[in-house]
TrEMBL record, chain A:
Belongs to the GcvT family. This is Sarcosine oxidase subunit alpha. Pfam families: FAD_oxidored, Fer2_4, GCV_T, GCV_T_C, SO_alpha_A3. SUPFAM superfamilies: Aminomethyltransferase beta-barrel domain, FAD/NAD(P)-binding domain, Folate-binding domain. GO terms for biological process: tetrahydrofolate metabolic process. Residues 515-596 form the SoxA A3 domain. It comes from the Bacteria. It comes from Thalassospira mesophila. The keyword Oxidoreductase applies. GO terms for molecular function: sarcosine oxidase activity.
Automatic annotation (TrEMBL), chain B:
One of its GO terms (molecular function) is sarcosine oxidase activity. Pfam families: SoxD. GO terms for biological process: tetrahydrofolate metabolic process. Gene3D superfamilies: Folate-binding superfamily. This is Sarcosine oxidase subunit delta. InterPro entries: SoxD, SoxD_sf.
Length: 997, 100
């Protein structure tokens, strides 16, 4: 039932019919059809509604540059994609296609009222219309913009497809498998190079597919494609179809997106849908060809109006006539040949309307032989037809004056405004362009990468020119890579070379201010909008683009940029190169997020670091939280406890008996060498010379700006060896900073730094029973308070494992941290856990650790400090070795701003009602009755409920905080103002008696 | 993705292995003797922020771990040279001559 299909013509497979649905109705086509070619074969031109005015639209071209025929495609559960280009998507049985931007139906759409309000929606209308009154913003403007925004509908389910990625190294990457690309790949591979040839289409051939009459070296074009691809494959060329070069990056890295399953009706479920390739090529050959330009005239967007070259493609590639009754409007020779092909296939060509007064003699002869009416020196000034073009209005133009109109009936209009070299990828490299005044187009000029541009991409027109240039550029690439290559010259007959002229809007006898002469079809930008933008002061093409949104749609202005530039330049009275071209950016065509994400989703989204004890925590019901890249046990709920219940129990058990905590994520750095102590003295604020081996000290690390960077307990194992601990999240940064100073500032020091974070499993035991539990397992060290006082370190054996044992506490209780080689971590944990049962042991997580440390006033760098806090501000200036000549941050601490009054300082806060828990991050004010905006004087950094203190406790950074102890501050919250007393930061056991048990 | 030559490994490797580390040839003043506020400010904060060839530091963080210096054109994002830490700052005129 394909009324417009010509049996025996095209490359579709008539033995394999395919049925799919379009807006629920079954449509039939053949294997090899795209959605568009199948719809056109059935006489359907109306495929969607435009974005802003909801105007009826059909396909305007046959390739990936399509701005109108964007549809939703559904391949299965969760496999919905909006804005699929119907001109590219191949059909298969069961594919579900829906039109977009219409309600309730494609042929009757309420939003089309926007079209009637056209005069209101002109350039910059977003900037003008939604300005006032302010009260309209929430209720009227924002909902309107939100409902109008976006093309199509976002998918609402998780994407079940798989996506892959690969790297590829190749000598020569040829982008585009048209005549230039095929010839280039052939010369380069014949010269012995590893060549990769990619094309976004399902098969190689490019323009040759639309020009089957061409004879190359005596071989018909289609046969030449087949034999050339066969030779390339035999030479080892990797030929990749359905593969788009999406971006051209530094040093000849090109990103490719290969579509693997979208054209299959029942793909293997294990097959990735798309594969992203990162290709590093020694030479790149850009053979991307040229894109046809529309002509700009009133009604040039009606369904049935199409680029002439695309109509020729539908005919020759798919065997589809785009209509029965065509008018051709052109400023370029190429459209004449499209008209001839269609006429020969049975379409009535009403007239060829050429803007040029004197078309070439052979074209005129060709038209006459087909009895086609020729109207040269004419303009098109309007079209009619609601859902499909019915007629076109044309006028003669004589000496610049537009004459009387004539109306030509038609069911399709084929237009051509000439061709634009596809320079997108070249532009990604910041390659310079040059304006060619004869061709009225930009051509590639100075290159920044190792690439060549071949064929129509550099303005060469015709099959012979493309083939010969491709062959030459392939040979150039080969010689650059030290290979011998010959320049093949192809003998081509039936080549259809041609020329044309370039236009702004076509001249009209009607009011140009009322013309819907579209430049950017996808974003509904008209010539009038562009001229208005210039009148309103947009003098740079970048401003014109943003004010009108010309070229800003997902097609990146592939069809609209040159027409937009011509009109803006005309309005400005400047030549085009003085106005400039907007920047093209990757990706070349819209690319799925899945392709970029690749394997990095779900559990593979990011690295999850797990401690050696993680499996025990999981088996024992821990609730985890991410801390930098680690997953850490946050609490261990029992019997259905919530977090508060679990934390309360864990805190009480640790303070009254003993708790064990997996501290393996602590960063650890081993510092070794004859100058280790000198390095420590320079790096940390504290003095280290007098720290005896076997002792530990709290170390404080600043930046040279004087601000706190990190802290941790550091043990001296021998005169030349320190065991450093860092905060969990900063281990890598601390090591990087140390290496930086060591490698670049203090190259005289003999010191070696090694990250040992993963080498040790660290188990912290805290609580009054900690020693009783640990003592029986320790060999080689008496761990009594006398023999092993607080802040000691020793290498010994614990439960038979070699260990570094710290006596240290981050809870205020008697505490030990046992480090054993990571492989023994879980075994030691189990041993201590079993033995701890008789002492009422509990396992606790990071949440309890936070509460216990806060009760004792121990800060967490990064939570209670924020990169602008000095040791003085944090109340830990006792950790500064004041007599040391220098250390990182020493001079920084003397900076005027760091010693000035009014700095924010760390204090404790107790809410005055004794019950309210403050919110971390809440702002502090001194006077809750002051007018809004209030002066904020600080914020809450940590806040917990404390069982040990019997009330909520908090830390805050408060302006002049140290001098405000005893004063009241206020915390305005949505529910009301909370008042709090400013206190010191130690809430529990201020004398530290419990540490010394 | 850039390819970067590590002068210690003597290999040209993907950018992923490296970390940018700020402007090069900014020596830390010896703070054991008096340093003026202005001098310390300059050391901490003042950078040339050039448009064009920029002397800068990189670290082969996922390789040998060494910091090294480079001259990179901030307009083209092209490396003119990389060289070991402590080596003399190469003259720009020599580099531009060589890159031609
Ligand atoms: Zn290296």
């Amino acid at each position: 039932m394909n009324l417009f299909r010509i049996p025996g013509q095209g490359r579709v497979d008539p033995t394999t019919p395919v049925e799919f649905t379009f807006d629920g109705k079954t449509v039939s086509g053949y294997k090899g059809d795209t959605i568009t070619s199948a719809l056109l074969a059935n006489g359907i031109h109306l495929m969607g509604r435009s974005f802003k005015y909801h105007r009826p639209r059909g396909a305007v071209c046959a390739g990936s540059e399509e701005p109108n025929a964007l549809v939703g495609t559904r391949r299965g559960a969760g496999q919905f994609e909006p804005n699929t280009r119907a001109t590219v998507q191949e059909i298969w049985s069961g594919l579900e296609v829906t039109s977009q931007n219409r309600y309730p139906s494609l042929s009757f759409d309420i939003g089309a009222v926007n079209d009637r309000a056209y005069m209101l929606f002109s350039a910059g209308f977003y900037y003008k219309t939604f300005m006032w009154p302010k009260s309209f913003w929430d209720k009227v403007y924002e909902p309107f913009i939100r409902s109008a925004a976006g093309l199509g509908v976002s998918p609402s389910e998780n994407d079940p497809d798989k996506y892959a990625s690969r790297y590829l190294h190749t000598d020569v990457l040829v982008i585009g498998a048209g005549p230039a690309g095929l010839a280039a790949a052939l010369s380069a591979s014949r010269a012995g190079l590893r060549v990769t040839l990619v094309d976004e289409n399902p098969e190689a051939g490019g323009t040759l597919i639309s020009e089957p009459q061409t004879i190359i070296d005596g071989v018909p074009a289609w046969q030449w494609i087949d034999q050339t691809v066969a030779e390339l494959i035999s030479l080892g060329v990797r030929v990749m179809t359905r593969t788009t070069a999406i971006g051209y990056y530094h040093q000849n890295m090109v990103g490719l997106c290969e579509k693997l399953t979208d054209h299959l009706s029942s793909p293997n479920a294990n097959m990735p849908r798309e594969r992203l390739w990162r290709v590093r090529a020694r030479q790149v050959i850009l053979a991307q060809g040229a894109l046809e330009k529309p002509l700009v005239f009133d009604g040039n967007d009606r369904p049935g109006v199409m680029l002439a070259g695309s109509a020729q493609t539908y005919l020759n590639k798919y065997g589809v006539r785009v209509g029965n009754n065509a008018v051709v409007v052109t400023s370029h020779d190429s459209a004449w040949y499209a008209a001839f092909d269609l006429a020969d296939a049975g379409t009535k060509i009403q007239a060829i309307v050429d803007t040029r007064a004197e078309p070439a003699v052979e074209l005129v002869a060709g038209a006459k032989s087909r009895s086609i009416r020729i109207l040269s020196g004419y303009s098109a000034t309007g079209t009619q037809g609601r859902l499909r073009i019915k007629s076109v209005r044309i006028n003669p133009v004589i000496n610049g004056k537009v004459g009387a109109p004539e109306t030509l009936e038609c069911d399709c209009l084929l237009m051509s405004g000439g061709w634009t070299p596809s320079l997108h990828l070249f532009s990604h490299t910041k390659g310079a362009l040059t304006w060619d005044a004869d061709m009225q187009t930009f051509l590639p000029d100075r290159k920044t990468e190792d690439c060549e541009i071949a064929g129509a991409g550099r303005g060469l027109w015709g099959i012979a020119a493309a083939l010969n240039d491709g062959a030459a550029m392939g040979a150039v690439a080969a010689r650059t890579l030290d290979k011998v290559a010959t320049n093949t010259v192809y003998d081509v007959t039936n080549d259809r070379v041609g020329t044309g002229v370039s236009h702004t809007e076509l001249p009209t006898d009607l009011d140009p201010g009322k013309a819907r002469a579209f430049v950017d079809f996808q974003n509904d930008v008209t010539a009038k909008d562009l001229r208005l933008a210039v009148r309103e002061g947009m003098h740079s093409i970048e401003h014109v683009k943003r004010y009108t949104t010309n070229g800003m749609a997902t097609d990146q202005g592939k069809m609209s940029n040159m027409n937009g530039l011509n009109i803006a330049a005309d309005a400005l009275g400047k030549p085009q190169p003085k106005v400039g071209l907007t920047t093209f950016r990757p990706p070349y065509t819209p690319t799925s997020f899945g392709a970029f994400v690749g394997y990095h989703r779900g559990d593979h989204f990011d690295v999850t670091r797990k401690t050696p004890i993680d499996s025990w925590a999981e088996e024992n019901g821990a609730v985890f939280e991410p801390v930098s890249m680690w997953r850490r046990a946050r609490y261990f709920p029992q019997n259905g406890e919530d977090m508060d219940g679990a934390v309360s129990r864990e805190c009480k058990t640790t303070r009254s008996a003993v708790g064990m905590f997996d501290a393996s994520t602590l960063g650890k750095i081993e510092i070794v060498g004859p100058d280790a102590v000198e390095f420590m003295n320079r790096m940390y604020t504290n003095p280290w010379t007098k720290l005896a081996p076997g002792r530990t000290r709290y170390g404080l690390l600043l930046g040279d700006d004087g601000f706190i960077r990190d802290d941790g307990v550091i043990g001296r194992l021998s005169t030349d060896r320190f065991h450093i601990t860092t905060t969990t999240g900063r281990a890598a940064r601390v090591l990087n900073m140390m290496e930086d100073y060591l490698q670049t500032e203090w190259t005289d020091l003999k010191v070696w730094l090694t990250s040992t974070t993963e080498h040790w499993a660290t188990i912290a035991l805290n609580g009054p029973n900690a020693r009783k539990l640990l003592e029986p397992f320790v060999e080689g060290q008496d761990i009594s308070d006398q023999a092993f006082p607080h802040m000691s370190i020793v290498e010994c054996t614990v439960a038979g494992f070699p260990a570094r044992l710290f006596r240290v506490s981050f809870t205020g209780e008697l505490g030990f941290e046992v480090n054993v080689p990571a492989c023994h971590g879980r075994a030691l944990w189990q041993t201590l856990w079993d033995a701890g049962q008789q002492y009422g042991i509990c396992a606790y997580g990071t949440e309890t650790m936070h509460v216990l440390r806060a009760e004792k006033g121990y800060i967490i760098v990064g939570q209670d400090t924020d990169g602008t806090v000095t040791p003085y501000d944090a109340g830990i200036s006792w950790a500064i070795g004041k007599t040391k000549p220098d250390f990182v941050g020493k001079r920084g601490l003397e900076r005027p701003d760091l010693v000035a009054d009014g700095r924010k300082q760390l204090v404790g806060l107790l809410t005055q009602d004794g019950k309210t828990l403050l919110e971390e991050g809440a702002q502090l004010v001194l006077d809750a009755n002051q007018p809004i905006p209030m002066k904020m004087v600080g914020h809450v950094t940590s806040s917990y409920h404390s069982d040990a203190v019997g009330r909520p406790i908090a830390f805050a950074l408060l302006e002049n905080g140290h001098n405000r102890v005893g004063e009241t501050v206020y915390i305005p919250m949505p529910e009301g103002v909370i008042s709090a007393d400013v206190t010191g930061t130690v809430f529990y056991d201020p004398d530290g008696a419990r540490l010394k048990l | 993705m850039l390819l970067i030559h590590c002068p210690y490994c003597a290999q040209t490797l993907p950018e992923l292995e490296f970390t940018y580390a700020g402007e090069a040839h900014i020596a830390r003043p010896d703070a054991s003797s008096p340093v003026s506020d202005e001098e310390w400010r300059n050391f901490l904060f003042i950078r040339t922020n050039v448009k064009g060839p920029h002397y800068e530091r990189w670290r082969h963080s996922h390789g040998c771990g060494r910091f090294f210096n480079a001259v990179r054109d901030t307009v083209s994002d092209r490396f003119l040279i990389t060289y070991k830490a402590g080596e003399k700052r190469p003259e720009l005129s020599d580099l531009l001559e060589k890159s031609k």
